[in-house]
Every structure is written in structure tokens, then in C-alpha cells.
């Protein structure tokens, strides 16, 4: 038999191919022929080590399930926000916008993920999207959305006409900054917002107040217009910076 050609090739093959590879190949073939066993394996086995490879079946499946659940949640939240955008006109009267504010604040409390809200602050967002995003952040005071909020205000403040937005919408954005900084500085030592974030916010809010169009909002009583919450934001930004100095 030792002179048999097939035997020689088989002997050569087994010498150079590890046993675990042969076993793994056999297991794979068996699982392909018994798919119900493969399903049970992925449900019940967390990990298995074969040779130099570790198969973490259950963990992979759980991660995929979690990712899918997150995607579905985001899609649902996007749908709810889209329906809200379509329910009002950002140019509506004060009474209408007050009702919308109440609805937005109620929905803001229900959101688990604010990434769809931050989409409403990006370039190209509609006036309705910006208004809803501003009001949601006024309610949530989320430091994780602070950079997106400041980016939005910086862009708007750089435009002589505030990108065509109404004063009420820009007021809501400035108020969101004020409430977010106030909440953070009051409840956290040191503040979660970093020194760099606060300094940039200070520069942006000062630019907003210096915008010529903003200065046309309630020139008789600036504190009642956009400059009111903008100045409040600046006051709390300074308190936040001083708090960093004391705790640094």
C-alpha cells in the first residue's frame, strides 16, 4: 500500500494539513446538511475555539440584533419628527407656534436618541426643522448636541439676513444655548462642556448679537428679542469658564 500513489498523496496531505482543519471542514459540511442544527448553535453557543480561531457566534448575533433595533428606533423617530415638521408652518403666528412648542417639548421628553434632531441643525435644513430642533434642545439641554447647535448658530450669524429665518426661530436657538449652558454649569463640577467649547460658544454668541439684522429685533427692548437669551448665554458661559478655573 505504501507504494500506492493515492496513499502517498493522502499521507502528504495529512502531514501538511492540521487535523483541526479537517475536523472543521467536516463540521461545516455537516452543518450545511443540517441547517436546523446551525440555527440552534447560533442561539445557544456563545463561543467556540477551533485551532487558532475563536468563533463568537452568540455575541455576533446579539450585536447584529442590537444594531437592527437601533436602526428601527431611529427610523421611527425620524418618522415622528417628519410628521411634526409637516404639521405647521414656521411663518405661522405666535399663537400657532406656542402650540407647536408645547407639542415639541412633549415629544422631546420621549426621544431616546437625539441624532435625528441634530439633523435639523445642518446646512439645508428647512425653517420648520430648525425651529423644532431648537425647541427640542431648549427642552432637553443636551450637552452632546451643543457643538451641532453652536455650528448652526455660527452659520446663521454669518449671514446678513440670518438665512431668511424668523426672529422667533433664532431666538429659540439662542435660548437653547442659554438653557444648555445654565443646566450644565449649575449641575456639574467641572462643567461637562469643555473650556474650548465654552470659548467658541462665547465667540459665536457675540457674533450673533453683532449681526445687524439681529439688532433690528426689538430695538426698543433688546432683552425681549434675540439679544436677551444670547446675553444670558454669555453670562453663563463666563460662569462656566470661571468654574473650570476654580476646579482645574
Automatic annotation (TrEMBL):
List the transmembrane segments: 12-32
Q: Which UniProt keywords apply?
A: Coiled coil, Membrane, Transmembrane, Transmembrane helix
Q: Which residues form a coiled coil?
A: 50-91
In Swiss-Prot or TrEMBL terms, this protein is called Uncharacterized protein
Q: From which domain of life does this come?
A: Bacteria
